[in-house]
Amino acid sequence: MEWSRQYSSVVWLDSNGHSDKYSSADALMAVNRQTDMSENSYNTIDEVQDFIDKKKDWLFGFISYDFKNTLEKLESKNPDTIGFPELHFSCPEKIIRFNQQMVEFHYLIPFENEIEKDFTIIQNLMPRQSKPSKGIRIQMRMYKEAYFKKVNQILDHIRLGNIYEVNFCQEFYSNHSTIDPWSTYKHLNAISQPPFASFVKYGDAYLMGASPERYLKKIGGQVISQPIKGTSRRDGIPVKDELLKTQLANDTKERSENIMITDLVRNDLSRSASRGSVAVTELCKVYTFKQVHQMISTVTSEVSPSIEPTQLIKDTFPMGSMTGAPKISAMNIIEEMETSKRGLYSGTVGYFEPNGNFDFNVVIRSILYNAARKYVSYSVGSAITARSIPEKEYEECLLKAKAMRSVLEAKNS
Questions:
Q1: CB neighbour list of residue 251: distance below 8 Å, 6 or more residues apart
Q2: Annotation marks residue 21 as catalytic
Q3: Cα separation, 148 vs 329, whole angstroms
Q4: How far apart are alpha carbons 325 and 163 in whole angstroms?
Q5: Which pLDDT tens digit goes with each residue over 366-375?
Q6: Which of 149, 167, 306, 411 is most buried, by the most CB atoms less than 10 A from its CB?
Q7: 2-48 tens-digit pLDDT
Q8: Could you give the CA distance from residue 365 to residue 363 in angstroms, rounded to a whole number?
Q9: Per-residue pLDDT averaged across 380-403, rounded?
C-alpha cells in the first residue's frame, strides 16, 4: 500500500484472510503511472470486451452505479460530488498478486526489468507516519424527519403495487476537508476486515472500501453471485453475540428481503445461463464479520463459452441488492427519492483475467474522497419492504455507517 503512493492509478483488492471455494487470490495490487493512458485505458463496455477478445491480458477497474443509464432508459440528475467516470478499466503496468504465502509479479514487458528493484524497495519501505488529525466533521445530507417522510412515500409505492422492495440510501459528507486516503483506508480496513476490501486512486478521486459483498465472479463456465440482505450488530459478550446471530437467521422480515433479491439475481443470471443451470446453493446463511452479522445467499449458473464476459455484467448490473425489485421501477424511485448521485457507491471494483474470468465486489461500507474538491462522502442504505418500520431502517443505516464515521471523526486517523 505504501509503495503505491507514487502511482497515479491504483487498484488494491484484499480478502483479509477470508476464503471460500470461489477464492482465487488473497490480494491484488495493480498500478499505472498515468490515470488515463490512451493505449491501454478503456471507458466503454464495448472497448473492454474488444480488449478481452484481442489482447487477452489483465484489466483492472470500476463501474459506477450510473452505468445503469447506458444499459436502460434511465437517468441520473442528482449532484455528482466525487467525480468518478461511469466506467474505467486499464491494463496495469504492474500487478502484484498475493496467494497462499506466495508473491507474484506480473509486469508489462517494458517494466519487467523493474521487478527486482521494486521487490527490494517494498521489503525495506517503512509505513509513512500520518500527521496528527483532529478528525473531520460529518454532516447528514438528509435529516431524520426527511428520511422518515421519504420511507413512508416508498411504503405508499409498495402498498399501491408499484414496487416490492427498494434499497434506499442516504449520504453523509464533509466539505472543505482533507484526509490521507492511504491511512484512512488502512484504519477502515483494520476495524472491518471484510472479504472484498478495495482501494482505488483515479486522479483526484479515491475509494476506501470495506465491502463484505461479492457482486459477480466467473470461473470458467461457472458464474457466482452472493447478494447480501439482512444485517445485525455484534456484541462483545459471546452468548449475546450468538443470540443476535440466531435472531438474524430467523428474522422473517430479513429473510423475506434476502429471498426477494435472491430471486431477482436468479432471474438476472438466467439471461445468459445454460438452460436449467441456475441454482441457489446457499440461502439466507448468516456470516459474521468484525462489525456486523450479515445474511448472504449464493446463486450460481453455468454459461456457454460463447457468452462474452461483459455480457454477464450487462445482464446483472446494477446488482439487485443495491436496487430492489422490480429493478427498473426500483431505480426510478431511487432517483426520485435520493438527494445525491451514487456514483461509485453501489457500483463495483474488480478485474478481468487474461482467460476471461473475472471477480467484482459491491461498493458498500466505503468512503469516497475528491482531493481537489476537498469533499469526503459515504453512503448507507437499507431495503424498504412492506414490513419496514422507518425508525428501524434508520437505525440500520446508522449501524452500517458506524465504521466509516468512527474512522473519519477519530483523531490520528
A1: 230
A2: no
A3: 21
A4: 6
A5: 999 999 999 9
A6: 167
A7: 999 999 999 999 999 998 899 989 999 999 998 777 778 999 999 99
A8: 7
A9: 94
* 213 included as an active-site residue: yes
Provide the 10 A C-beta neighbour count for residue 67. Answer: 21
Nearest to 331 by CA among 344, 346, 349: 346
Q: What is the mean pLDDT of residues 295-315?
A: 97
Q: Which residue type occupies 244?
A: L
Q: What is the pLDDT of residues 330-344, one digit of tens each?
A: 999 999 999 999 999
Task: Write out the three cell numbers for 211.
Answer: 465491502
Mean pLDDT of 390-408: 94
User: Residue 371 in contact with residue 91, Cβ under 8 Å?
Assistant: no
Residue with cell string 480488449: 51
Q: Which H or E run includes 245?
A: helix 238-249
**What is residue 319's three-state secondary structure?**
coil
Using alpha carbons, select from 212, 154, 211, 171 the residue that is nearest to residue 82: 171
According to DSSP, the residues that pair with 378 across neighbouring strands are 172
Are the beta carbons of 391 and 162 closer than 8 angstroms? Answer: no
Active-site residue, from 93, 165, 213, 335: 213
Asked whether 33 and 8 are in contact (CB, 8 A), the reply is yes
Helix (H, G, I), strand (E, B) or coil at 328: helix
C-beta of residue 40 within 8 angstroms of C-beta of residue 90: yes
Catalytic residue among 68, 201, 229, 341: 229
First-residue to last-residue Cα distance in the chain: 16
